[in-house]
Fold these 3 entries.
Entry 1:
Amino acid sequence: MSSSQDSCYISLLGLAEHFRTSNPPEIKKSIQCLQALNSLNPPQKVEARTNLQIGQLLMAYTSNYDLARIHLEQAWTLAENIVAFDDVKFVTASLLAQLYQQQDIGSLSKSNKVLRKAIELSQTNVYWHCRLLLQLAQLHATNKQYALAAELLSVGIDVSEEYNAAFMKIVFMLSKTMVLIVIRKTNEVMTILSQAGTIIETQIHNTHQKEYLKVFYLVLQVCYYLVIGQVKTVKPYLKLLQQSIQVIMAPNFPSDEAVVNSGNSMENIMWLPKEQLYVLVYLVTVSHSMMAGYMDKAQKYTEKALSQIDKLKQGKNQSILYVFQIILMENIIMCRLVMGNKFIAIQEISYARDVCLQSPNRRLAVTHSAQLHCLLGLYSMSISLFEHAERQFISCIEETQDRELKLFANLNLAIVYLRTKREQQLSAILEAISVESAQSLHNQALLGSFYYIQGLNSFYKSSFHDAKRFLRETLKMANSEDLNRLTACTLVLLSHVFLSIGNSKESMNMVTPAMQVASKIPDIHVQLWGSAILKDLHRMSRDTTLETEAYNNHLAFSQTLLADHYKCTKSSEHNLINWFTGIPPPGTTGPGTSSPSVASGTVMDMSTSTSIYNNQ
């Protein structure tokens, strides 16, 4: 390179940097300077770096991703085989794979090819080797190829072990735990979490990094117990998580950038920025409240989390925020249905549909269509449109690979068949659920719900002895893990069983705590059912005062539900129940306010089967 050429390159680079850092940035002029440099036929290394810089500017400041991709592809072709050029080579590979995925242009095959080649070339650079392994594992997990993701993360654990990189080893271990939770390999989860917890306490000496890792670790602990339906067992871990996130969010805690840059290069990876961790803690708290039957708490925390998401979206609109938002919406919608607010629920289902359609590349409209169908099935059940409910649950079952979501939809479908007296279909689905639960069901809440439905079926058949047997098993499981809604539903059904066999004393012993628990939740459907039983019990005991009180309560609950039902059928959002296949139809709705049920025998979700492997 001649000195005059050298001076020219340096001048153009200097100008490009001047325009980029000016206030406001003049990105077009900066790119023009870099393009002018490339037109001078610079050496291969300079050309590769310049193409990378142009690609980075286009990705960061414009929406011209096609042109960014062209420049990054050129940079990768030029840099791929240059020795000792790691900074350009691997940054380019990482960005190019990210862009393929973002544009969804043969994203899996193209990203996979680039990343695997880069991983092969980076074996002497442990920092980039680990980062690229994480990125490829994330790519496979996003595409539901969990076995491949877990395999890559295991390689990362081994590499980190070899280089004594404790921080990086924890990141790989916790990432693998996420994948194992998703695929429900729960036996392996606790082993890895136990090992990770020990390493965090004994080998991570930077206190701020340790606090971030503790949040990651505790989020996974909480998710693990929620996934297996252990609402009571999870409480101490949830409390620790809430305390830890308060430490990170305190004004005197360093910024994300300061924490990332406080260690060596092997420690400058962060799972999620603190603002997103804050939302995530709200999210798992909402899931816990929903499963435990604390609807008021679930609503309060959902509103706070959605408000935080709105603030974050005003900054950088990242795809993970849509994921958080839709999972929060799924939980709050189920709360509305339990509380009898069906009109708000269908508005929010419509809004959840809009969130899915607004997500990058409308990805959530595909990945979460099964959950939308399930919510529409629950809504249709709540207003006794059983044909629509059946079709929605079948759509959910056909579109999901999640075994627990499939089981949850089947449990509700069983109730549809029970309520519509379709005994042949009911017997077939109960048999299928029985086989599935015996083989692989680890979720205590769903298993309890299955026993509940068997009890309900026995009650409908007047097989009262069998009904009591199933329901006592349900009650034992619900009480052991503080599953309050399942407890209330079981108690009120047991009360009805005892009433049917003329045992008014035992019926009263069951319905009284059922009403107490239901009023705390609050679950209007159990209250409606319980008030009808109380009316009959007081009539049998000739207590006209209490009979009148129970009658008036029953009438008030009925009128509230009927008025809400009428509003539902008149709303434009109600028409969404007619969507059964493909991408959901677009709408013009927004969230009505902020942001499964036993309604005379409607099973409501006690699980977090909607949880997914989120972006790192």
Entry 2:
Amino acid sequence: MSNVKPNSLSNSLTPVKSALLAGAGIGLLFLVVKRQHILSYWNRFQNPLKRKHVVLIQNANDCQKVVNILKSDYKVLGFDCEWVTVNGNRRPVALLQLCSNRGYCALFRLCCIRQIPKSLKDLLADEEVIKVGVDPGYDAQKLALDYGVGVASTFDLRYLATMVGRKPEGLAKLSLSVLKITLDKHWRLSCSNWEAKDLTEKQIEYAANDAFVAVEIFKTLAREFKPRLSWLSDFAITKCRIEPYLELQFNSSFSQKKSKATVNKSVTPIKTQNRKLSTLSKALYDNCLLQAPDGELLCTIDKRKAEWYLQQQLGVKIESEPFIVRLNFEPASRAVGEVGRYYQTPKENRCVVCGERNAFVRKNIVPREYRKHFPVVLKSHTSHDVLLLCPKCHQISNISDFKVRNKLSEMCDAHQRIPKPAELPELRQVKMAARALLNHSEQIPLERRKYLETLVLNHFKESEDINWDMIKEASELHTSEPNDSYCTHGEKVVQKFQADFGGLKELEKLWRQHFLNTMEPKYLPPLWDVNHNANRLEIRATQGRVNEEDMLIAGVPLHKE
């Protein structure tokens, strides 16, 4: 018979029951907590706006910690500002929104902080940290005006949208089309009192969402820009391509579909010329061969120029395929060095950037607004600086050119502050008539041609018979009222480079290097060189075919024996 009493057995089982019950309770609690986490993650997946973490900063002491968190994340921040307008007058920026890549949204109540702490100033001025949004430059201007803060490396998301073939729109429309997120943009919220003692939950949500979706749009478009790699792993390449557009105001005339870009806040657009691009459907380079009398290859030319030599009886046709013309006179010079070999080498009819072969647009690497003020020796033989781009690459390249133009305006004090002289319609009519006769005389009906010739003759009253020199002179008439105070941007830049910045070869190099850096062309013609004209002038100087003054203007030293 056992000596263990029932009481003792019961007592010994009590700890086991307690342990089992405790374990069951912990397990149940774990399931409840886990379920809440799963639901939380599911809700975040269903609504990306719930992924953000919002922090409201109302005093200078809290700034340092928050800035450190923002700086520790990846160097892209969603950026936006809010302010109050009273009776049509804008008050200082009341709220600054910054959001990190991980969704850490910091709302700085500048109206409460009053003086922006140094840590926040340094973050805004950090060129390595890109601040993204729609028209962020406008908000940056307001911060500079109200608080004396410089905001570096702002980037308008509409540029990236254009690059990947999307429609450049306002923040709300981009959020919907790119992220499938609908933002609440009710005017009662956007125009609410951002200087109130306490912001409402709706105000906080509205403000945080703007900065959050800005950085999320950037991440998504960056992935579309480089789809094979994550935007983080390939950010260096993306950053390199967007760098020309940093701190540049978006211009809708260069958007891919020529649509008018919408902006959340009113802003005066940059005034630009709206021109339709002339797209070439046929080949630009015919690669016909031009030979010296002894059969030495001089250069490649187009078919039209080759046929002109034949029509003028300046050469004879040697072959049809390839089309070869041999001159019957000794040319002024022959191909020398790499410069000469460049003109001898056949060129491909393809976009020099991406390789597209179906449609092309001529791209003047050194824009005509500068080239037209160069001396004749630097304006002739400029085919080196006319390259083929597809329409998309051409638009992207033109966008990037604005930043260089703005820098040149600052470098050379070339802001056009004086109004352009008025054009004289009578002189313009004569000039247009002369140009028509010069370029299309054979196609113009006889009666119309006589009328145009009369217009030109009436301008030169001392002559009764029209001649080629007269037409040429009339085609180059200045048709504006004289104004010695007026100087175009291009003319001022050219003058400044001639006098102070090492000559025009430096201006040419600047534009060529800019094209290489921003567009990264993969299909440039062989021997294409940023120093092309300087090398060409040195060769001409050794042949005695260029004067010292032109060499000095170009900035090429003249080596005397």
Entry 3:
Amino acid sequence: MSAQQRVALWAAEPDLDDEINDVDIPLAIPSYPNADMYEDPNVQLDESALLATQAQIAQQAAFAQIPDVVKRFIVHFHQAVLDNNLPEITVAYESGWNRLTEKFYSKTEWPEAEIIAPLVNDDQIFLILYRELYYRHVYSRLQPNVDDRFHSYENSCELFNYLLNSDGPVTLSLPAQWLWDIIDEFIYQFQSFALFRSRPANKTDDELAMLASEGGGQAWSSYSVLNVLYSLIQKSRANEWLTARSEGKTEEEIEEVIGEYGTRPLYRQLGYFSIIGLLRVHVLLGDFTLALKVMERVGLGLSVGQKAPFTAPTAAHVSTAYHAGVCYLMLRRVTDAARVFTGCLNWVMRARQYHTRSYQYDQINKTADRMYALLSLCHTLAPTRLDDNVMNIVRERYGDQMTRMGRGEEGLGTFEEIFLYACPKFICANGPPYDDPNALALLLNPPTPASPSSPSAPKPTTSDPTHRHLRALTAHFLSLTHVPVLRSLLKLYTSLDARKLAGFLDAGVDEEEVLSWMMVMKNAGRCVGRVNIAAVADKDEEKGGATNGTPASGSGARGSLLDGEWMSISDLNYVIDENMIHIAESTVGRRYAGWFIRNSEHAARVLDSVRALPLPVATAAGGSRPQGRDSESKGEKNAKADGAPRTGGQKVAWGGVKAA
């Protein structure tokens, strides 16, 4: 059967069973050796042989329970991988696998790799890829147990060892979406295992024993995960490839730089996605500076002229913007965080219609919702003018919460609730001491001090890294609790005495305390930001961030992502002369230039397209066909005289009917 027929088979919308059963596929399933051994009473079996026979019988029973449509799908999938047929692999991966999952395995596991091995002639490479899908299904749809967590790590090691330690580049070809999902799922399973390991309470004896073993200490370690990502980047020379592209080198020069691995799309895309994966891993570990450092050659689409190296999946762009925005927020660079979130959300709104049928649509929407929530925190910490379309959605979803957060300490609970919902689940690089029972028991049952008020008593702390980051950000939020009240009062005056200002506030506030609050407000009105590209970034957001409808992701030609200068983000400036406060308010007007430019260009494009279309003409009664604008007016008169619109004839662009 040809490749075109197989693609059409999986792309069809009718019932999958009917489509596949109409296709005759030769399927040779080898029989298990010694399958009838247990029927002979004269045969003496030792215990190991008996167990092997029972395992074979169990495999036969499990194989018989697999639906025929699933067996044929696996055969098709395997053949497509052998042929390196990317269109067919893409359709089977994005459509066939998900449709069969919904129909047969929405609440249970797919068949294990050992069971379906006869269908693929025991092809170990395909079985590794199949296990990658199998464990991803377990993590996303079911609840993985401790065996699943360890086995998924072993399978990931086998996959990356095959890619990195083979003799030369492998001949495997996979679509970009699958490659991104491999990196993304690898990091997600690492995060899931770290969270599972960080909670020693309520663990069974078997789980404690596995975590205390030597393999348990090495499985999903931070070192092994970082080693895989850095090895993929180094093997593919992804950073050198991005640098060569930004320098405008020719394809021949780029091939000399990146070598035999970098010229293969498989390694090039894996290396590129590994850079984005490093951003995510460093964010989860709390190293926000290093997270932005690794993205310097990739960039965030804030500069004009940056083009995407290739058509990366939508989820890769959204993940990049989300984690980069979190880095800026945790580094107190609130304006940069707001700019990254706004640019990505604008692009998601424009591209929403193109990925509504994607199987990742729900995940993209969840990440976008988290960015809206974090954007409300950014606006609370540093009120600045942002894109109206995005801010309207933020106010619609989080308007009440933003009002409560603007009241100071009263909104602290709301601030914490939004942050815990929208932030990543941070993890610890090292887990509890499972190999030391005494230290583990001390961790589970810390000694209670004799007197809680004793100065020598240890203060209660939490080992949860998410709450540690929350405490750091809420401390910044609490330092700004008096800023909204002071801001509303200062807007009413051009000069004001500190004693009079203290009288407007709560009782018991003296001048010195008011002046200290004023200094806090002055500091809150300034932050470090990428001011040298702020104007360019706005223009880039208006143009869509990149060509071909994807956010730009080029090299950071305009400087490091960590570069920045002190900038004023407040429209209220004041000077304190002894105890007198002099206020100057600078109103920032709306930027109408971009709006007029965009709409003028749109009107010009519409006018050009209208001029290129044929005009509807009508034939006068008893005469020849008129031309030009007169024909249009006569046609309108004839149409009115007829009393009904025409229903026959050639249709024109706007849906009318051209007269015969």
